[in-house]
Design goal:
Rossmann fold, 3-stranded antiparallel β-sheet, about 250 residues, about 35% helix
Length: about 250
């Protein structure tokens, strides 16, 4: 748990003022122990290698949780192995939905065609919730530049009983690309094919120049989030801003 005397209202405000624009500093604070037990949750997607590289420089033994929904691109699984080996990640934990849950709710693997929200809940949200049990906080790669409800993102925010840390909140695509190039880091192979945001294969497509980076996710649907950043139907935005309904909730 966070150190004695920690108060979300005061301490999160102070941390945001101090570390907005300093992702390595924010990451170091998150993994210092002051916030309790904290894990980095990574999709090993288009931009994931930046935070993973920062973590590997100072805390290579920190927990890294990777949710394999069992519907990811083959390229993502190969990239995950490549990055973990290149960065020498020492505590990578691959999280999957249970066989029992898949057999009970999606034995044919077609749930995404009729209820994408239920599919995300089954294959990602529930699996991650179980994996985060015992952790006091988690680190994500969300950024304000991704648009939508993420434009109001704080670096440090309250997420129910946990603290969520978004070190790259203030970074845009150019800064991410520059960091990757500067440190000669491997890129996800689908990025070159027009995929700036990469999720499960059935629900992710390429994005045309000028489109929102996340336009290829659940294209044609009101859905914009997989659910891991939604609590009680509301997208988690941070302690300073009132949570607002997600698009899929507002449409109901």
């Amino acid at each position: 748990m966070p150190r004695d005397g920690f108060t979300p209202e005061g301490d999160l405000r102070r941390l945001n003022a101090q570390f907005d624009g300093d992702p390595q500093g924010a990451l170091n604070v998150a993994l210092s122990g002051d916030l309790g037990r904290v894990a980095l949750v990574s999709s090993f997607g288009a931009d994931s290698v930046v935070l993973l590289h920062m973590l590997a420089q100072t805390h290579p033994d920190a927990p890294v949780l990777f949710v394999d929904t069992m519907m990811l691109f083959a390229e993502t699984l190969e990239y995950q192995h490549e990055v973990a080996k290149t960065l020498k990640l020492q505590n990578l934990r691959v999280i999957r939905p249970t066989r029992e849950a898949i057999f009970a709710h999606d034995p044919d693997g077609v749930l995404h065609l009729t209820d994408a929200d239920a599919c995300c809940t089954l294959r990602k949200t529930q699996a991650l919730d179980a994996a985060l049990d015992g952790f006091d906080g988690w680190i994500t790669g969300r950024k304000r530049s991704q648009g939508g409800v993420r434009t109001a993102l704080d670096v440090f925010e309250a997420d129910g009983p946990r603290i969520k840390v978004n070190p790259l909140a203030g970074w845009d695509t150019a800064r991410v690309a520059k960091y990757i190039d500067t440190h000669h880091l491997p890129r996800h192979p689908l990025v070159a094919q027009g995929y700036p945001s990469i999720g499960c294969a059935p629900c992710t497509g390429p994005v045309a120049p000028g489109e929102d980076p996340r336009a290829g996710r659940w294209r044609g649907h009101a859905k914009t989030e997989c659910g891991i950043h939604v609590r009680d139907g509301r997208v988690i935005r941070g302690p300073a801003a009132q949570n607002i309904p997600s698009k899929q909730q507002a449409a109901q």
